[in-house]
Design goal:
Two copies of one chain form a homodimer. Chain A contains five helices and eleven strands. In chain A, the strands form three sheets. In chain A, strands 5-4-8-9-10-11 form a six-stranded mixed β-sheet, sandwiched between helices. Chain A has a two-stranded antiparallel sheet with strand order 1-2. In chain A, a hairpin with a 4-residue loop joins β6 and β7. Chain A is α/β, with parallel strands linked by helices. At the A-B interface, β3, α2, α3 and β5 of A face β3, α2, α3 and β5 of B. β3 of chain A pairs antiparallel with β5 of chain B.
């Protein structure tokens, strides 16, 4: 997605060979017009998958997931990172390790919001080690629902997440695939459309 | 806002005289079409305020704030509840006590995303004791920016937040104002348009 890659080039900050900071338009300050374009693009790429619901993880996934759900005309559901006092239903949970923050957290969804047989599109802002996507997929399976696809805004293709999700047979669509952050420069995967 | 009040009546769950659960369409599962309507309505109500940016607090504020920012054609910024590893800038912070969760948390915004003189619209999903709105307003003032208004999706008018914000002179617009949750029934403020 060319508009996204252009914003990564212009406003992304390479903090290390592992970490790209995009807090100017994606995960702290958010560009709503770009999110809308991202939503339309995910809806286009997964149009034939019969999506019933979009699932993401708070907080950075909410903006792209919401716009995707709007474009698809379905509800969006975001997993919570910790149990909140009003989330008192039966919970579906998974453990997710964040390599960035170096903490394991429990993510949870109220069971009544995921029905058996529903076709769920998982959307997240980043794919690195794949922990968040795998945790969300585990929750979908616990509900007896199906993972109909995984939509990623920015994939760090040099980290193992994409390979793992491919190996498990998931249909993954990433809007920007980063081959390397070496030398402080963002290099995209050549084949990326 | 009639559509919102109708969804509160139909899908809201009164957990106690203090707590209304709206996790079917606002703060867990999210109705993107309703969020879009909410965004358009806030944009209409604050159209004359010269808004430069919409500010909210993760995670539940993100959906209505994003749609408001889209309708206004400005960026959205969400405060973080804890310092994240990639949020390494100079931070503007405030302490916010959650009566629901009974914990105090530190909320933070990277200083470079709020400029002196900017006119900021604060948007949040709920107004109860006003702690989140007051914390966000404190951050805006630290930046030398101005609070141009406060947009609330659901106001619990029987709790002290609204009165406190009015007393401080803020322009507050709440889309649904709840007078009471007594007897397990949602009663709206009569004057509510």
């Amino acid at each position: 997605m060319e508009q996204l890659k252009q914003m990564i080039r212009e406003q992304g900050i390479v903090l290390s060979e592992q970490v790209l900071k995009v807090d100017a338009f994606l995960n702290h300050q958010v560009d709503p017009r770009l999110m809308q374009q991202i939503g339309v693009e995910f809806a286009r790429r997964f149009a034939e998958r019969g999506i019933d619901k979009v699932l993401t993880l708070e907080a950075s996934g909410i903006a792209p997931a919401l716009m995707t759900a709007l474009a698809l005309g379905v509800p969006m559901l975001f997993a919570r990172k910790q149990q909140s006092l009003t989330l008192t239903d039966d919970l579906l949970t998974a453990r997710v390790y964040s390599f960035t923050k170096q903490v394991e957290s429990r993510i949870a969804v109220a069971a009544r919001h995921l029905a058996p047989g529903e076709r769920v599109l998982i959307v997240d802002d980043f794919l690195a080690h794949g922990q968040a996507a795998l945790g969300l997929a585990a929750i979908v399976r616990q509900a007896g629902a199906q993972v109909a696809g995984i939509g990623i805004v920015i994939e760090k293709s040099f980290q193992p997440g994409r390979g793992e999700l491919d190996r498990l047979g998931y249909r993954v669509e990433s809007l920007a695939r980063i081959a390397s952050l070496e030398g402080g420069t963002v290099r995209f995967v050549d084949a990326d459309a």
